[in-house]
Fold this sequence. Notes:
Blueprint: E1 17-23, E2 33-36, E3 42-46, E4 56-61, E5 66-73, E6 80-85, E7 91-97, E8 107-112, E9 120-125, E10 130-135, E11 139-145, E12 159-165, H1 171-192
Antiparallel strand pairs: 1-2, 1-12, 2-3, 3-4, 4-5, 5-6, 6-7, 7-8, 8-9, 9-10, 10-11, 11-12
Amino acid sequence: MEFPVIVDAQYCSPLEVKLTIAKKVLEYNNGNFVITDSEGHTLFKLDQKKVFLRELTVLRDDGDCPVVSIHKKKISLHDTYQVYKGESSKELFTVWDKNMRDAAELTYEIQLEADSEPTFQVKGDFVRRNYEIIFRKSSIAAEVAKKHFSLSSMITGKSNYGVLVSPNVDQAFISAVVTIMEAIHNENKEKHGGKHSDSH
């Protein structure tokens, strides 16, 4: 089954690619969020220091060019995120929470702008960063897991995990989805955890 190019063909590789999500968490609670390749080179990074998607967040490449911008929508009870190319108004895809909050197994659906129904699903254990991004309910586009963390890009702090991206899958698309999952589950943790979160 052929995977669609979603952000740009330059982010697709004919080989399986291992990405590392590295959060430098020791910088006085203001850590950076970067996505690196297996050699430790930065592929994508977040505009903001913290992975909170308020209204807008931009994922940039290592040269600071905008790759995608992620808009959080407050229009419904669902977490809904719309992703645009660069900082343009060209919408690429939308991510939403299929089951609302109380479902035992969370599933997120991703609908490409050109499609009339969801093309990808994201399901698994988000708290433990162990989940899959599935294309048309049959092919694994990417697998997110602690076990895919690559030691060559070890960064101080314990908040690291890996993403195994299938051949020909758009890595910028996968990175945007992983960023959204990170933000949702970071926010939930802060909301429900013992620590008080900022009120603004």
